[in-house]
Amino acid sequence: MSRYSALALLREALRGNAGWAPAWREPEPAPAYDVVIVGGGGHGLATAHYLAQVYGLTNVAVLEKGYVGSGNVGRNTTIVRSNYLLEGNNPFYELSMKLWEGLEQDLNFNAMVSQRGVINLFHTDGQRDAYRRRGNAMRLHGVDAEILDVPALRRMLPMLDFDTARFPIKGGLIQRRGGTVRHDAVAWGYARAASSRGVDVIPHCEVTGIRREGERAVALETTRGTIRCGKLALATAGHSSVTAAMLGLTLPIESHVLQAFVSEGLKPFIDHVVTFGAGHFYVSQSDKGGLVFGGDIDGYNSYAQRGGLAVVEDVIEAGVAMIPALSRAKALRSWGGVMDMSMDGSPIIDRALENVYLNAGWCYGGFKATPASGLCFAHLIATGEPHPTARAFRLDRFASGAVLDEKGVGAQPNLH
Ligand SMILES: Cc1cc2nc3c(=O)[nH]c(=O)nc-3n(C[C@H](O)[C@H](O)[C@H](O)COP(=O)(O)OP(=O)(O)OC[C@H]3O[C@@H](n4cnc5c(N)ncnc54)[C@H](O)[C@@H]3O)c2cc1C
Questions:
Q1: CB 199 within 8 A of CB 61
Q2: Of 10, 46, 100, 355, which sits with the fewest C-beta atoms within 10 Å of its C-beta?
Q3: Hey, what's the torsion of the CAs at 43, 293, 414, 99, to 10 degrees?
Q4: Which string of DSSP letters, residue by residue, matches 292-337?
Q5: Could you tell me the distance, in angstroms and rounded to a whole number, from the CA of residue 53 to the centre of ligand 1?
Q6: Which of 310, 334, 358 is the last residue of a domain?
Q7: Ligand 1: which of 67, 236, 292 to mutate, judged by most atoms within 8 Å of the beta carbon?
Q8: Angle at 131 between CA 126 and CA 135, to 5 degrees
């Protein structure tokens, strides 16, 4: 596979862009693979890349029921950060942040990694204490965190409602290394890198059944025939409970829709990712000028990739409370993705059966986790041992009670 470079761009510009090869191969499925990964989203593709690059496993297939990137990886609001509080989460998300920082070089792909800073606003003294605590926990783990006072915020974010707000802004927590990454470029970059090392990336191949013998999965029934597997890795995000049910497994996961929105293109307006502390709202501006924003999940279970009007109203209301000028922008479109909400809001990277591995429970924070999730899942599949950074993401924590409840709201998926 040819390398992308400034020289290649120049060469192709001079010859009418006739020499670009497809970014990845899309071969017919083989009858059997050492490892079959179900789900060609960010996590499945990243896992395939690290299996090949780090662990030398290349007799691997990624089966995707739609096109590559048609799931949540291409639907999210592109925010990456590692501003986590809990011991089990923080080092994992920081590993991911470090991998983001070197991702474009690793994949030889422009993923538009933009470390523009993520600012969480706070509006009460109690929230200030909570954010100070979170910031201190981050710094203890070597992660950058700073508290911003109101004069600093006024300079950085003059468009916020400071003077007439119902919930006055009292400051913010900033992680300057946080920011955004172009989501579908991440899927394409991982697909290309994995494919170039010999992994078969197979779109339009839906898994419809899994043949199980005792504690082992032996073959997958797919819309493109039967495929035998040495090891099976499930990375199906919002459909985790559906694919696990094919093995007779019930997961501590509920599926909910999360919606996102984009406005018409505007001149540069917001330089950072900003989150509202007095409601659920987060916003950044894309390079095309659209304001990309979102809020809460729809509070009912669904596998539909679209949401309801109640959440549309709630999100826009919070947005206008934070940035009154938003009321003048036109919303261009909205869409939805299916979230695999775990009972404690934290993910699962674990073995589920003798040769079956599970990557699930990402809630609405799994995009930022993509590189670390792929690396840690590949480690587990290749070595049989959990990656040291992902030891806390065990399936049995829901039985033992050793949960990782970052928000402290209990077993209520719609609140995480
Ligand atoms: C609107 C929205 C905003 C979000 N914002 C953020 C954010 O700003 N930051 C952040 O960190 N996270 C965010 N997330 C969450 C994040 O996108 C997800 O947690 C993450 O993408 C899930 O992992 P994935 O990329 O592997 O999922 P997906 O891309 O959904 O991949 C799973 C794949 O499995 C495939 N599949 C399912 N069943 C089968 C089957 N039977 N056979 C074959 N294939 C199958 C699906 O088609 C899908 O492509 C957001 C999500 C949404 C929807």
A1: yes
A2: 10
A3: 30
A4: EEEEEEEEEE---S---HHHHHHHHHHHHHH-GGGGGSPEEEEEEE
A5: 23
A6: 334
A7: 236
A8: 150
How many domains, in total, are found in the chain?
2
Which residue's alpha carbon is at the smallest distance from atom 2 of ligand 1? 76
Considering the domain boundaries, does residue 104 fall inside one? no
Write out the two tokens for 100.
């983001």
Find the residues whose C-beta lies inside 6 A of ligand 1.
38-44, 63-66, 70-73, 75-79, 206-207, 235-239, 243, 258-260, 294, 337, 362, 364-368
Same domain for 329 and 229? no
**Model pLDDT, residue 173:** 98
Low-confidence ranges of the chain (pLDDT < 70): none
CA of 70 to the centre of ligand 1 (A): 8
Give the model's pLDDT for residue 408: 87
Choose the final residue of a domain: 277, 312, 334: 334
* pLDDT attached to residue 244: 98
**Any residues with CB less than 8 A from the CB of 176 and at least 6 apart, and which?**
115, 117, 144, 146
What is the structure's pLDDT at 414?
81
Same domain, 291 and 197: no
Burial class (CB in 10 A: 0-12, 13-18, 19+), 307: buried
Q: Ligand 1 centroid to 272 CA: how many Å? A: 24
How remote is the CA of residue 345 from the centroid of ligand 1, in Å?
A: 15
CA of 322 to the centre of ligand 1 (A): 28
- Asked whether residue 353 falls in the same domain as residue 228, the answer is yes
DSSP secondary structure string for all residues of 206-252: -EEEEEEETTEEEEEEETTEEEEEEEEEE--GGGHHHHHHTTT---S
The reported pLDDT for the residue numbered 411 is 87
